[in-house]
Inverse folding.
């Protein structure tokens, strides 16, 4: 009897707790809802701050647009900085049609112009005019979401800072009472988070955007500085702004929670599978292939992708050196018909120049592609070029995040890494520790010719063949020969 | 001579065109041909709104007698009008005519500033 009562009481407590837990509205912005564990606080105001060009307006507008499109929550944008026309044009370049939403009465935009030169101030006033406009706009579309961008321009437009401050305080209370979920943007400040200390008024959720340029490469980052009553990711998350809006890469480096699947999948090369207990790699593992130029790294990774597609799985191939057509042509020379998988939608090749953007932007782009394509296997060929755009520390941190991200999704990943001469093993040591498997390719001079060899330096969790083998690349693909004794002998001398 | 004075707005009679109309302008006032079209935006008949109107009426009677009109717009009743004249603060006085448009916000208690703002006194006019 007593235990029953305790159980009921426990349930009751849990129920109360659930009710007390902060309700959230999904932003609909890719990745941001994961970082904030569910979105922005419902019926409250979130502050988004950052320097010029950090993406504040875009984030705010995307919050409105996604709300209108995905969650049937119409929005109001009170724009202090850009006119309706400017906003519409800017958003069109990012793939959003604001006019359409306005026509559908899912969005109302009110441009508030504050021209200080035109305005003389004398005596008492308040900002009821602004309140009236906001209320009007909210009623027009029955808005559930509001964006104020950038409300602190009021400080520039009006000389009585005391009035502006007390009115802003009133405005934020008013928004809360109105039950709308609001986003307020603010310029980053030198001393505080924002130039005018808006974080004092909006204390529920504060997000900082950052746009850094290091070595001519720009990277955008997002961080949740504060989220009252909620847990949230605390890292800096890289994000992208492209023709599909914002995508945040919600990858944490502390993601050692992934399971360890015992399923095995073929490497796509019979001989290599044999070296791996005859079964291939573990699903969800990450494999590094290093080798000097022309040793067949791409062939191995293409064979791996080809095998996945042959099983009816999806493969995503990131090419940082060659164009998709180049890859298809080259791989047909080693007996791999990748075209057929492209046609069936099982293979996607994403090619881009590594130097085009920063490392984190690349990884954010990769994250986005993975989320969209939902592949079973991922190939990154080569990762070397990514390393060249970042410094060692950040490369390792970002790779860790990427690997954790893929592991959490049980995606098997193959990375190739180009090395030079004798540094094969040293160069890769930094990143090899992150990998479950490490395959080293070499071409060794032997008399008149060069012999291709491969060597599985490590493969976690299985009794793999550690001997060095020779292999050939031909029309029938990759053929691995028996134990390559002569090289071993040559080395011993 | 038309002497109908602007009456203080009260209650809900908000959109209240008051003051002397241009048509009944007496010949003696023709020297200042411009018709002054003033609009006072308020949000409800608060003490500040009423004070602003009374200050404005006094200034107009002193400096623009016979050639001005004041329209009082209560935004609580006609919220749509706030966008057109870009009103954020109340009270806001908008000089619609003569052009260019001028805006003065506040209860208009500082007569000197109002006169400067309306271009009735040169900017260097005070101290």
């Amino acid at each position: 009897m007593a235990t029953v009562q305790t159980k009921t009481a426990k349930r009751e407590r849990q129920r109360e707790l659930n009710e007390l837990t902060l309700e959230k509205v999904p932003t609909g912005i890719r990745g941001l809802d994961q970082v904030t564990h569910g979105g922005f606080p419902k019926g409250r105001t979130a502050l988004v701050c950052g320097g010029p060009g950090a993406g504040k307006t875009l984030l705010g507008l995307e919050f409105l647009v996604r709300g209108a499109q995905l969650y049937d929550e119409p929005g109001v944008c009170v724009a202090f900085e850009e006119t309706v026309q400017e906003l519409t044009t800017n958003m069109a370049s990012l793939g959003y049609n604001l006019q359409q939403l306005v026509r559908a009465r899912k969005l109302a935009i009110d441009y508030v112009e504050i021209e200080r030169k035109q305005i003389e101030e004398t005596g008492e006033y308040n900002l009821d005019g602004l309140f009236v406009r906001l209320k009007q706009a909210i009623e027009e579309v029955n808005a559930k979401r509001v964006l104020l961008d950038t409300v602190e321009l009021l400080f520039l437009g009006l000389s009585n800072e005391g009035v502006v401050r007390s009115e802003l305080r009133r405005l934020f209370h008013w928004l809360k009472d109105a039950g709308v979920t609001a986003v307020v943007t603010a310029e980053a400040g030198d001393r505080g988070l924002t130039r005018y200390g808006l974080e004092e008024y909006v204390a529920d959720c504060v997000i900082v955007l950052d746009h850094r340029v290091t070595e001519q490469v720009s990277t955008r980052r997002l961080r949740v500085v504060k989220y009252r009553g909620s847990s949230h990711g605390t890292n800096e998350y890289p994000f992208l702004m492209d023709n599909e809006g914002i995508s945040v890469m919600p990858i944490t480096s502390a993601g050692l929670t992934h399971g360890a699947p015992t399923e095995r999948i073929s490497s796509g090369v019979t001989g290599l599978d044999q070296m791996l207990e005859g079964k291939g790699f573990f699903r969800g593992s990450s494999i590094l292939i290093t080798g000097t130029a022309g040793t067949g790294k791409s062939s191995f990774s293409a064979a791996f992708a080809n095998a996945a597609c042959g099983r009816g799985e999806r493969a995503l191939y990131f090419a940082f050196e060659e164009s998709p057509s180049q890859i298809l042509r080259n791989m047909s020379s080693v007996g791999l018909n990748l075209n057929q998988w492209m046609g069936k939608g099982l293979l996607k090749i994403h090619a881009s120049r590594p130097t085009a953007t920063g490392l984190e932007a690349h990884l954010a782009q990769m994250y986005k592609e993975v989320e969209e394509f939902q592949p079973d296997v991922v190939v990154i060929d080569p990762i070397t070029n990514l390393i060249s755009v970042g410094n060692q520390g950040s490369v390792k941190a970002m790779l860790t995040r990427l690997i954790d991200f893929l592991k959490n999704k049980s995606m098997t990943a193959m990375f190739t890494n180009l090395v030079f001469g004798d540094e094969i093993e040293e160069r890769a040591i930094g990143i090899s520790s992150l990998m479950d498997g490490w395959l080293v390719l070499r071409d060794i001079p032997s008399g008149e010719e060069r012999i291709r060899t491969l060597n599985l330096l490590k493969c976690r969790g299985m009794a793999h063949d550690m001997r060095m083998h020779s292999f050939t690349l031909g029309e029938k693909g990759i053929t691995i020969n028996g134990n390559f004794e002569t090289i071993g002998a040559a080395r011993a001398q | 001579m038309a002497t109908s004075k602007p009456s203080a707005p009260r209650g809900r009679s908000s959109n209240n065109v008051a003051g002397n109309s241009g048509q009944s302008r007496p010949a003696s006032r023709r020297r200042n041909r411009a018709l002054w079209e003033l609009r006072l935006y308020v949000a409800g008949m608060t003490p500040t709104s009423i004070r602003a109107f009374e200050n404005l009426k006094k200034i107009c009677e002193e400096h623009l007698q016979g050639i001005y009109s004041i329209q009082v717009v209560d935004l609580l009743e006609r919220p749509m009008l706030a966008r057109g004249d870009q009103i954020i603060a109340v009270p806001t006085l908008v000089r619609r005519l003569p052009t260019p448009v001028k805006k003065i916000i506040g209860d208009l208690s500082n007569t000197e500033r109002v006169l400067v703002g309306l271009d009735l006194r040169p900017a260097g006019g005070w101290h």
In short: The longest strand of chain A covers residues 217-227.
